[in-house]
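pinging the channel bc i need a second pair of eyes. not urgent but kinda urgent?? the chain im working w is below, pasted from the shared doc
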Amino acid sequence: MVLLLVSIVLVLALFAINISDKTGMPSLLLFLGLGLLANFVGLDFDNYWFADKFATFGLIIIMFYGGFGTNWSMGKPVVKEAVTLASLGVVATGILTGLFVHYVFKFDMLESMLLGSIVASTDYSSVSNILTSKNLNLKYNTAPLLELESGSNDPTAYTMTMLFLSVIAGTKISIPIMILKQIGFGLIVGFIMAYLIGKVLKRLNLNKDGLSIVFMFAMALFTFSFTNVIGGNGYLAVYIFGIIIGNQSFYGKRDVVFFFDGFSELMNIGLFFILGLLANPESVLKTLPIAAAIMAFMTIVARPVTVFGLTIPFRLKFNQLIVISWAGLRGAAAIAFAIMVVNSGLEFSVDIYSVVFGICFLSSFIQGSGMAPISKGTDMLDPNDTVLRNFNYYQDKGDIGFLKTTIQEGSYLIGIKVNQISLVFDFIVAKIKRGDKTIVPRGDVELQAGDVVVLAGEEYFDHFGDELIEFTVTDHHEWKDKKIMDLNLPNSRLILTVQRENGEFILPEGKTVIQKGDLIIMLQDEKMKFG
């Protein structure tokens, strides 16, 4: 019977996803609705212990893949703004909301701060779903900013929730030490695990089908669990681990992407359905006025004050700030943290789970539905681009790779039409960037000086890299300050890339000068390897 119910729920969820894609309504709202509907027709479920464990597991997967799927090259220009909002922004939102609850509804101060902390973070799934389903490519790199913020702010809300929960429970803790351990251990373990696993992936033979998936799945769970055991923030660690590993190339990455694409969606469905199933319709309706007031305050006051105040140093556009303020959708993490609070066994003056559920439900419906018209009304839509897919997406999901080259002044290619280019190998011209414009490479398009031409072809993945040498040029290295043409390299060796100390990659030419600190990657003939 249980399996029958699960299969029915999954099929209904697929229809819900289809509706979400067409209407732009957050899938969170529809999954919660399915859970509420099941509750209403008599499916009784009140196992908060199971829900807590499932929510924790689901958030691990969602946060790991949220980091794994982050395109760092797109997020890097707005990382300062995103990190500020994901940390200080969550703290400010939580405190302002807590003060509102305390002074308006006369709840105990600590209880109010706990409630504010639970709902302080924004929901990655809802934000990402709204942006992609409505194709809301926002100006000024706002879409990457929102996705990076919403994907990374749950750890801060979790730390605040744990902090106030511990104080209310009377646990003797040092608040500064707890915060330092949560954030410090989370960051350290995340970076160390990413570094170690990155090294392991280059040396471990995982070329059997599915092994890379099993390995990555295990490492994500280990990163979270180990960090929690030593007192750190497991969500932060697994997110950092996901970002770093996801922006590396390794054998089997495509399989990992396909698996976690589907599995994270399955976790979303299961998580939101169970959260809806846990809700008591009578209690939700009873606390709805409180939830509506808190949600309205957060949307109209707390979020805008936080966004406008904390982003002053970054000098963002006024219309951009309006959209960022509106995009503070609350979701799965808040409800999962509320379950954790219920499982603490502490008594509160209000049904916290029902209040949080109401806030998230209303936030998804009102803010989610209003995202498109507000973006359009504030002139924040960029008609020349899309957030649906980019070239990196297809590199991760298909056997395709991209190369770019710039047409230099005086090149014989200037004035040549695309259909006249003799591509001896199996490449096609995928696109042409001319200044700020993207040119569709039709056959009659003529190349101009300064054009950036992107070529596409079947990618090659080197499983073991046995033919590669990597070393750093020291102050006393014989190649220092020499041109490549003067190195007299044997025919069995070829310098592939030169990476400067500042991270810049140089495509080597004969006149390229090797500098101190350069990282040299060189190909050598396998037969000459031990010569």
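so The chain has 18 helices and eight strands. and The CA atoms of residues 44 and 277 lie 8 Å apart. — does that match what u expected or am i reading it wrong
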